[in-house]
Structures are given as C-alpha cells and as structure tokens.
Amino acid sequence: MLVQGQRWTTSVIRLSVVGGLSIALASCASVASESNGAGTHDAGPYPSNYEEIVKRYLHDTLKDPQSIQELTMSKPVEKKVFMGALGGGTVPAWATCVSYNAKNSYGGYTGIKSYTYYLRNGAILISDLGLPQVKEASSQMFGGERPDCEH
C-alpha cells in the first residue's frame, strides 16, 4: 500500500517521463523538418543538375544500378508533395518523372517503370518509388496530375 509521499513521488516520475518523451518527439519533428528542407515556403533553387542527382540516387538505392536501361527524365516542375505530419505536411519541391528498366533481385528485367522524384535543395526529398501512399497523396494534391509520368 502506497503512502502519500510515495504517491507523490510516483506521480512526479510519471509526469517527468511523459514530459521528456514529449520534448524528444517535438525535437524529432523539428529535426525532420530542417533536414529535408521542409518548413520553408518555396521549392528552393531550380535543380539544374537534376539528372546527376537522380542518377546518384538510383546508383545508391537500386540493387543492380549498372543494369539500368532506357533511362529518361522530364525537366523538373514545381509541385507540392505531402511529407507527413512530422515531415512538415505539404511542401513545395521540384518534381521530375523518371522512367527506366532495371533488374530485380532475381536478375530479370522488370520492364519500364515510371516514378516521380521530388527534389529540394540539391537532394531527393522523396519519391513515389514503392510508396503508394505518396503516389496517392501526390495525385490528390495535383488533382490527378503527375509531371509527364503517364507513359
């Protein structure tokens, strides 16, 4: 059975833990916003080196980047993309449609696929590659429009 002093101590500990977690979560949200460039009201400078940025990203993320065939990219256009609540909500970015054929984990080519990549401040902010929720949210934000990605 707890006495009055022990109840007070237990309550203070619980309040401290909840307060600490709240501060930690708030810090994560602001770090996420700063790291991806979210929180500003423009898409940043036009990414004149967008082809280099996308090729580097594909090289770093695909299982077999040397297998890329038929790579095409549209010129970036300014669009908005939904980054989630912790990512700053809806933010402006430069969107480019990227199409290519590459090998999968089994070594076979998958056929030409098109994805929208969102760039900001010289880096890939997010892509709809394998993220149907990004594709759906972006489609709703653009009124069903994606930058030249309907091949």
Structure, explained:
The protein is an alpha+beta fold and 151 residues long. It has a domain of 92 residues. Helices cover 36% and strands 24% of the residues. Strand 2 and strand 3 form a beta hairpin. The longest helix has 32 residues. The chain is flat, with a radius of gyration of 21 Å. About 15% of the residues have low confidence.
Quick recap:
By secondary structure, the chain is an alpha+beta fold.
Tell me the distance between the termini.
Answer: 71 Å
Described by the principal axes of the CA atoms, the overall outline is flat
Question: Which bin fits the share of residues in helices?
Answer: 25-40%
Helix count from the secondary structure assignment: 3
Topology:
Blueprint: H1 4-35, H2 50-61, E1 69-73, E2 77-82, E3 90-101, E4 113-120, E5 123-127, H3 132-141
Antiparallel strand pairs: 1-3, 2-3, 3-4, 4-5
Which key phrases capture this entry?
151 residues; 5-stranded antiparallel β-sheet; single chain; alpha+beta; 5 strands; 3 helices
